[in-house]
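--- STAGE predict ---
source: upstream dedup step, 1 unique chain passed
mode: sequence only
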Amino acid sequence: MKHILKLIQSALLIFIFVAGCDTDKLHDMNINPNAVNQIDVNYFLTAAELSASNNGLRDDRYTDWRTNIGMCAHAIQQLASTSTGTISVGDKYLENDVEPSNAPWDHFFAGDGRVTMEIIKQTGPGGWYEGRKINTRHAARILRVLCFHRLTDWYGSIPYFEANQGIEGIFQPKYDKQKDIYADLFKELDEACAAMSPSHPDEGFANADYYFNGDIAKWKKFGYSLMLRLAMRVSNVDAAMANTWVTKAIQGGVMSSNDDNVIATMALGPSEWTNQNGISRGFAPGDGGQWQSSFLSKTFVDWLMGPDKNSTADDDPRLMIFTAGIIKWTPNEVVFYETDPLKQRGLPNGLDGAMLNTLMGGPTIPYEHFSAVNPLMFEDDEPYMIMHAAESEFLQAEALERGIGSGISGTAKEHYEKGVKLAMQMYTVYDPSFVVTDAQVANYLATYPYGVTKPALEMIGEQMWASKWMNWWDAWSDYRRTGFPQLVPTNYPGNATNGQVPTKLTIPAYEATGNPNYKTGATQPDRLVGKVWWDGGPE
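--- STAGE serialize ---
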């Protein structure tokens, strides 16, 4: 990836420059007005893959830090913070119309949305690569679905069919209903997955694809797994749509092994701001420094430790993977205060510094008392996991429990248990020490028998929540859809939701004031308490 990054950046700069200029003037300067069409679209595919991992086109920590971490990780109570600033607004349900809500709108419309649209245009009718770069074209369609399902899941109704059409003169795109967007996302996945084939000429596809190195079978599994995710996401509001697309996803073949996981590799170079993991950048001391502001929440630590706090026998084996313990993390070293699993402590959500001091009986330095994230998982060149096979197993278990779709082999219990195993054993890509043995998984499953310890759907929902560690914004969507885990909301003074977990991001003010279609098209109320269609809001 590193050896092509500068070429990608140069290509994108040319693309942005030409797209914004008057081609007649360029012609007068004896410069080919179609020069952008002659850039190899495989550069754009790599850029789109970078963008999907919140990298490539801007500060690579911005969207993760503000939204994935600041809003979503805290709202779903995997992290907690005493801060009242933008880096933890989800902890106390504070409204910030700038950073947490603006960040993904800025990043994904300008990043994945724009770049994938250019690939699709250039490989389509009249494009420079019409009839060529076929796998590149359809990989871009899958990435575009990933981009826009994220956006519509966060904001509700958004510009979709007219999005990224500025070069065609559409500067104020109309808004589309989420139900209509979802219908088209399913169509795109269906067509793209069917069209990808190893029989097509490679034309540089494998070298450009740093997710799977051109492995078409894995791309198809990625696309059909997205289809399964989206089908289950609409299952509470459109049973027919859910049934149709769950069935098609299973027929197509979804992820079933951690070898199928969608992972973006990161690097330390070529600069401090490029190629690095944005989540890690948010936490690293001397950079984002989130480690000393946000800690594992009491909700999450208590769940991981199990009901018997005096024994590790009922602990989730991921406890000491997600946290290194109670530590002080500096740019030069990690000082360990407490690494005993029995002595881990999560920070309660919804507290500011004064409230914490009252709780603890005096002035308190949080990192001396509460479990922090594990630095071995948050180095700048850590891989960025976009989607994993455990999710597909949990969704199949849920579909079987609820009678959604057809063609799923095995039992709900089998898919649940396989999902737990995959989820517990997928972290060695971060560090070899993060091994969870088959025996540990078996012990955990025996300790918490499926459908016995809690109702089956609740157990599935909780395990999906735990498996989305670091993919917090998708865990937030899962929580809004399933209601699991059963969180106890905070009610910090002056919060914006009257003490309920946020259910939507607000559309940026510059879009609301600059696009007249916002007034009639955006999901209302356009506040943190608004609801998207699949969560019971308007279509």
